[in-house]
Amino acid sequence: MLVYSFVIIINQKNRPCGYLQEIGQIHNSKTRRVSCGVARNLYAVDINGDIYPCQRFVNNKEFAIGNVADGDIGQKDFLKKVTIDNFKKCAHCWARNLCVAGCPHENLASTGDMNLPHDSYCRYVKKIKSELIRLYLRLSDEDIEILFKKK
């Protein structure tokens, strides 16, 4: 049975399976607007109290979204910048809602623009997502029941 290796991982409760979560995203037709928890449930604060959308942006003042002394966090403005709708390169990509254009900081480091994923990242993600879709399409109804039953 195709799902056997996933069942083993599920039963070993302390070994998460990232690909299973991604197959679940396909199964549930879930789309995301942002690639990670950046500026939503992931923040970093430097020694001066400056708040950043994640630890990877610390000390890059251009990306500070507030200060603890001010009590105001401008995460909404940052989130608007990094939602998938602002990635022109991704506008017509078939994988855009599964991929969500990757980590904004990695994009910035590799292309100089947090809204521009690197071509090699795009090729990698499309390959992985297409294989996961193929795997999902091969699952039997029984496989789907085992993997995605509500507990």
Automatic annotation (TrEMBL):
Which residue windows are coiled coil? none
- Cofactor(s) annotated in UniProt: [4Fe-4S] cluster
Instruction: Return the PROSITE patterns for the record.
Output: 4FE4S_FER_2 (PS51379)
Transmembrane segments in this chain: where? none
Q: Which Gene3D superfamilies match?
A: Aldolase class I (3.20.20.70)
Q: Which residues form the 4Fe-4S ferredoxin-type domain?
A: 80-113
- Renumbered to this chain, the signal peptide range is none
Q: Organism's domain of life?
A: Bacteria
- A GO MF label: oxidoreductase activity
Would you tell me the protein name for this molecule?
SPASM domain-containing protein
* Organism of derivation: Alkaliphilus pronyensis
